[in-house]
Amino acid sequence: MTEQIKPQPGIMEIKLYQGGASQVEGVSEAVKLSSNENPYGAGEGAREAYQRAVHDLHRYPPTDHLSLRGALGAQYRLDPDQIICGVGSDEILTLLAQAYAGPGDEIIYTEHGFSMYPIIANMVGATPVKVPERERVIDVDAILGACTDATRLVYIANPANPTGTMIGGNEVARLASGLPSRCLLVLDGAYAEYVEGHDGGARLVASRDNVVMTRTFSKIYGLGGLRIGWGYGPKDIIDVLNRVRQPFNLSNTQLAVAEAAVKDQAHVEKSRVSNTRLRAWLAEALAEHGVPSDTSCANFILARFASRDEAEAADAYLKSRGLIVRQTGGYGLPHCLRITVGDESACRRVAHAIGQFKGGVA
Ligand code: PMP
Asked: Which residues form the signal peptide (predicted)?
């Protein structure tokens, strides 16, 4: 009987998402640097909104997200009618695949691209197509060369996770204009706010009909636990995504806290400035210990070790010191560790521990 009951094609191809651990057994004060979270947490305005939201627990939330879209539009200078809000940017990335791809279609992502992209492709029965990068940087020509008549979506993150590298606006525009006519370019801007002056691709969305940008409250806004993201795209595409979206996808709490967070740009600014300073400091400190990294544009660095064995030993050593970082073997980077830029004390602890590890001091 159960042999007859089979999941849709692609579902069993899905490799379960590997989330970052938050505890180390036997260590009481572990510092979690494995999920690119904001070390300062959420801003004051967002915390207050969270407390106030208790009064609305019995009410269904609005389905149109008008107030949050208005706040996002005002802050990012975008038309609120071209914005859609979801349960993390993961939901927007998923809605795009649900609406525009299915069995027989292809979804392109890049060699070290974010692990949700192939998961989402398999979820909708499409074929995930992995395209090589050039030295951990997205290669536009390789993507264009991999496109076929069946390509429906291309996912790229800029800055990218877990490499932290970025490609320039001209390259992104060249990619958008070179894609086949039935293919959408999805610009994942989860880390866009960490790059001063970077619009995440918003201007490109405005000038083309085949580009959608996704953004998140999980990173610089410090709200990963609440699950809120958004997308910006051509009106007809946003209309399509709204048809696929659950009407009550976001709770009153999510909506109220996200709106307060957008209006608290001082917290965003403080977080960006701190990240920029500590990221440079950490990268330099690790390089001095013989652990190089590419210049990162995000809130983490990808530390490169001599081998997979050394990276695994470094990971175990850091763990024993209460420092939780992310192994990147699943991203095709087994000799690397991705380390979130924490606060000053966390960065100093990481640099010190890696210095001891490299110096052979146990
Ligand atoms: N895109 C990228 C590149 C990410 O790194 C992440 C989170 N790790 C996401 C999207 C998803 O973020 P969320 O669903 O929390 O908005």
From this structure: none
Among protein residues, the one whose CA lies closest to atom 2 of ligand 1: 190
CATH of domain 44-264: 3.40.640.10
Confidence band of 1 (pLDDT split at 50, 70, 90): low
Confidence of residue 361 (pLDDT cuts 50, 70, 90): low
Q: What pLDDT score does 17 carry?
A: 87
Q: pLDDT digit string (tens) for 71-128? A: 999 999 999 999 999 999 999 999 999 999 999 999 999 999 999 999 999 999 999 9
Q: What pLDDT was estimated at residue 362?
A: 47
Q: Is 230 exposed, middle or buried, given 0-12, 13-18 or 19+ CB atoms closer than 10 A? A: buried
Give me the helices (H) in 101-234, please.
116-123, 140-146, 169-178, 202-207
* pTM as predicted: 0.96
Q: Is the CB of 157 under 6 A from ligand 1?
A: yes
Centroid of ligand 1 to alpha carbon of 198 (angstroms): 17
CATH of 2-41+266-358, one of 3.90.1150.10, 3.30.2130.30, 3.40.630.30, 2.60.40.10: 3.90.1150.10
Task: Work out which ligand 1 atom sits closest to the CA atom of 218.
Answer: 15
Which atom number of ligand 1 is nearest to the Cα of residue 87? 14
Distance (Å) from CA 91 to ligand 1 centroid: 10
Nearest residue to 158 (alpha-carbon basis) of 200, 125, 100? 200
Whole-number average pLDDT of the chain: 96
Residue 106: beta bridge partners?
A: 127, 151
Residue bearing the CA closest to ligand 1, atom 8? 35
